[in-house]
Write a structure and sequence with these properties.
about 450 residues; Chloramphenicol Acetyltransferase; 2 domains; 6-stranded mixed β-sheet; 16 strands
């Protein structure tokens, strides 16, 4: 079935995508599975909660349309968000099973590259119940609509409204989450800066010649398929690793889970590639850090920050170098604002997306990591997917999986995988690099910490 907002005002909702949303338009959905081994959600409660959700997030009920040279999300004449129910005749797969074991339970196809995104639901969900009493809720969100933070806000609100619909005394989350900021226009005070930086942006990062070079490099690289491997890091092993890294610094300092994990990944990648140092592009959430994205912004509020890490010294040195490099750019307003503002200005005011090569100019920075071989890191460790019960009286999901179709060349994705604090790392590398990476883990005696998930 399809669900639409109740009010006429929400059904008339329409907003332009930003340039930062557009690279994801034809590339991917974000397919998440939330798993309850011993409980079953109520489909009618899910439906009632979704009806309320779409009043607050009408963008999730829309469709992509072209209008006056822009790509927009519009609820006008849209069928709405897709919601399905499936009662399986099978037992639930083991909660410890790899992500591939859950792929068939996702709603529809989970890769937008082979579909028409202008006629596709931007939010889809499927509830599957099993004969042994468990269930899985698979949610599929178009990445051009929201990033990880946006998806978390979407699911938190949905769970809250399911609790109200089921008339339970326990609501997870207990308070209604803040209203999302859906406006994707550029703040007026940034427009003069945008005009000033457009030429610089195009010259340095998005010239037509650079687009052609990047395209040829991509074609050459994609002649061979990537290898995908998932690795598991338990909460206990992570705690030991963080403690060891902190103690080995000259002055013991706090090191985050993200930084501890990256010390393993970057050291092993540098060793596998035979490099003395490695440049890593970290995907950074700019909500609350940039005039372009207030704290509750719903969309893609992302930028890249480059960190150069030496492949020398102890792993603790690598972790601390990553720590220092990552934080050095987060207070730089120009880095966080202006490249994106310049792109937004041209997309929204110059109708440049009417021309194919012009569209490629804005997508190019997103693909730089593919053409130059440097890793890109995307971490979801700060998001909490285990405090949502969807009307089950405080019984939240205990496991989470992400479908293997969510992958990108030379990307490191970090996801929470269980309510106990275990983490899943997804690596997508050329097959020969993957072999050397796994050998590097063994060389550093890290294969006992970062355990390869079979299948």
């Amino acid at each position: 079935m399809f669900c639409l907002p109740k009010s006429k005002e929400a059904r008339e909702f329409e907003v332009a995508l930003r340039a930062s949303d557009l690279p994801y338009m034809f590339i991917m959905d974000v397919p998440i599975a939330l798993i309850w081994p011993s409980h079953q959600l109520n489909f009618d409660v899910l439906k009632a909660g979704l009806d309320e959700l779409l009043e607050r997030f009408p963008v999730a009920a829309g469709r992509l349309v072209r209008k006056n040279g822009q790509i927009r999300v519009s609820c006008k004449n849209s069928q709405g968000a897709a919601l399905q129910f499936h009662q399986s005749s099978e037992k639930m797969p083991s909660p410890e099973a790899p992500s591939s074991a859950w792929t068939k339970y996702f709603v529809g196809s989970v890769h937008r590259a082979f579909r028409d995104p202008f006629n596709t639901a931007l939010l889809g969900a499927r509830l599957t119940t099993f004969t042994d009493g468990g269930c899985v809720l698979c949610v599929n969100v178009a990445h051009c609509v929201a990033d990880g933070a946006g998806i978390e806000a979407l699911l938190q609100s949905w769970s809250h409204y399911c609790g109200k619909a089921s008339e339970q005394t326990v609501l997870m989350p207990p308070q209604e989450p803040p209203a999302p900021v859906l406006d994707r226009s550029i703040p007026k005070e940034l427009v003069p800066q945008a005009k000033e930086h457009v030429k610089k942006y195009h010259k340095e990062r998005a010239s037509y010649s650079s687009v052609v070079v990047t395209g040829l490099t991509l074609i050459a690289k994609y002649k061979r398929l990537d290898a995908l491997k998932d690795f598991k890091l338990t909460a206990a092993d992570l705690a030991v690793l963080k403690q060891e890294l902190s103690e080995k610094l000259e002055k013991p300092k706090w090191i985050s889970s993200y930084e501890a994990i990256m010390s393993l990944i970057l050291r092993s990648l540098a060793y596998a590639d035979g490099r003395k140092s490695i440049t890593c592009r970290c995907i950074v959430n700019i909500r609350g850090r940039s005039k372009l994205a207030p704290k509750e912004y719903f969309g893609n509020a992302l930028t890249y920050h480059e960190v150069v890490v030496p492949n020398e010294g102890a792993p603790s040195d690598t972790a601390f170098a990553f720590h220092e490099g990552l934080r050095s750019g987060l207070g730089d307003e120009e880095k966080l604002n202006l490249p994106h503002v310049a792109a937004e200005y041209f997309v929204n005011h110059k109708n440049e997306f009417n021309h194919t090569l012009s569209r490629a100019r804005y997508v190019r920075p997103f693909f730089l990591s593919v053409s130059d071989g440097e890793p890109v890191v995307n971490s979801w460790l700060i998001f909490n997917f285990f405090n949502m019960d969807f009307g089950l009286s405080g019984q939240a999901a205990t496991y989470m999986r992400v479908a293997p179709t969510f992958r990108q060349h030379r990307h490191v994705h970090m996801f929470p995988s269980s309510a106990d604090g275990d983490i899943m790392l997804r690596m997508t590398l050329p097959p020969d690099t993957m072999e050397r990476f796994i050998a590097a883990l063994a060389h550093f005696n890290l294969d006992k910490v970062l355990k390869e998930v079979p299948g």
